[in-house]
Amino acid sequence: MLTMKSELWIEEKFKDIMGVRFKTEETCFAGQSAFQSVDIVKTRGYGKMLLNDGLVMISERDEFVYHDMITHVPLFVHPFPENVLVIGGGDGGTVREVLRHTDVKRCTMVEIDRMVVDSCKEFIPLCSKDLENPKVKLIIDDGVKFAKDTKEKFDVILVDSTDPIGPAQPLFGDEFYEDIYNCLKSDGIVVSQGESPWYQEEMQRKLMKIKSRLFDVVTIYNFSNLTYPGGLWSFTFASKGLHPIKDFVKERVAKSCLTFKYYNEAIHEAAFALPQFQKENIREFLKGI
Amino acid sequence: MLTMKSELWIEEKFKDIMGVRFKTEETCFAGQSAFQSVDIVKTRGYGKMLLNDGLVMISERDEFVYHDMITHVPLFVHPFPENVLVIGGGDGGTVREVLRHTDVKRCTMVEIDRMVVDSCKEFIPLCSKDLENPKVKLIIDDGVKFAKDTKEKFDVILVDSTDPIGPAQPLFGDEFYEDIYNCLKSDGIVVSQGESPWYQEEMQRKLMKIKSRLFDVVTIYNFSNLTYPGGLWSFTFASKGLHPIKDFVKERVAKSCLTFKYYNEAIHEAAFALPQFQKENIREFLKGI
């Protein structure tokens, strides 16, 4: 729940055991869409911050971490990512990073909630600035429906979803991943927002289990987000054969001439090293690793 | 500042831009020593928690992360760590992990604040349980003074300090590290609590700078602490020659038959991969890496 107190702090509470509060200076946008509440606030220490249903999605201060890691890990593993699909990602940061790869000819983004896109276009151009790029096809629709209906085949799919409550719930289900599997090319990769190793052990197991039934290579990688509860956060990685480290040709990073604030060659490999407690939690679903 | 509100939350505030709150159920201990305030509270989600001057030091839920990483990284790099010095570490968790290494013949712990040791002995045996081990020499004194005066030479020194406010301030200074250098054997390693890459960039630079004047190998490694602001946290690693990865013989971990909840061989190496923003911040002080 988003609570705006008299002294202007927003707070993300977690299971009534902890809360993270951020000092805010201004409300830029506060709306209620058909799917969720959408708030953009200006904070004192983190720039502007987007919250859906009271949960921090991104802040200008640290959005680069999430967007670097959801994008560059799979796009530097796939040898020639021409056609990319982003499901969710309404703020635009993932699309922005995808477009930096010159191999990419086309990026389709399917976001269910127009209010997220529109409010980020107005208030967080840092993320949304490339949504009008001619390579981008922006579709406001249900990603689950899109994955079921599309005839298009993609090299890389990025499931940039909110948490598995509200509109994102079906994005954590079996059927959705069957459809994702079917709309990936034969060397395709899918990466999905994978929740917290500390707080969502069951969800991590569930996502890994769903993917390990379908894909040949299934694993998880971590990153450190400044504004998410607990800091440590995960993406799941699944592919029809490409290995996230063995098929990662480090030299491609330097050759790309891209610069990053979080990602680098060493971080790419290190992200797949899991703390022992997390590894044990999902060990039975690791595949091809 | 430790604030105990009517609804029983404790809150660690950071620079008036953010706060992390934990739901508490009971105060086990609340004291004011000559050096700092010392509180132990029972939280709803994290077991018992120790706070010094209102800053979270450890919780029963995640203490293994910090203690694994301060201890096992240097102790698996040093080929034969017989004599270990812990400066600070009043809760006892670091000593507990040190003693699991059968090579260790003697572990000296120098903690300035008897109140921390005594309260943890009473309320957090999970950490303090090995402080009475005959291999342990517990000295209640100023670690700065001890390092200056001792004639003993150590294989590994672990500076398990609080943040550089209050009693720990001199532990972040030049003179202290000159003395540390002098009481390390010729293949010695020192690891020090290194603050947050997100919030204490200047302190990370300062610590690295001090160490790079003295030591041949100087770098930093990260871990993800559940209860520290921002999650991502660092240790600095400095040695008179041993390299944290090249001199790490992975096989020693399996051979030790030790089990861990956070540390493993892959985490050891991965911890030294720094996010790009952090690497750039301390790049000029990296040495021998």
Secondary structure elements and their pairing?
Two copies of one chain form a homodimer.
Chain A: E1 9-14, E2 18-32, E3 37-43, E4 48-52, E5 55-59, H1 63-77, E6 83-88, H2 93-99, E7 106-111, H3 114-123, H4 125-128, E8 136-140, H5 143-149, E9 154-160, H6 174-182, E10 184-193, H7 201-214, E11 217-224, E12 232-239, H8 251-256, H9 265-270, H10 276-282
Parallel strand pairs in A: 6-7, 6-9, 7-8, 9-10
Antiparallel strand pairs in A: 1-2, 2-3, 3-4, 4-5, 10-12, 11-12
Helix pairs in contact in A: 1-2
Describe what this molecule looks like in 3D.
- The structure is a homodimer of 289-residue chains.
- By secondary structure, chain A is of the alpha/beta class.
- Chain A folds into 2 domains: 50 residues, Spermidine synthase, tetramerisation domain (Spermidine Synthase, Chain: A, domain 2, Roll), CATH 2.30.140; 223 residues, 3-Layer(aba) Sandwich (Rossmann fold).
- A 7-stranded mixed beta sheet of chain A has the order 8-7-6-9-10-12-11, sandwiched between helices. A 5-stranded antiparallel beta sheet of chain A has the order 1-2-3-4-5.
- In chain A, a hairpin with a 4-residue loop joins strand 3 and strand 4.
- Chains A and B meet through strand 2, helix 9 and helix 10 of A and strand 2, helix 9 and helix 10 of B.
- Strand 2 of chain A pairs antiparallel with strand 2 of chain B, so a sheet runs across the interface.
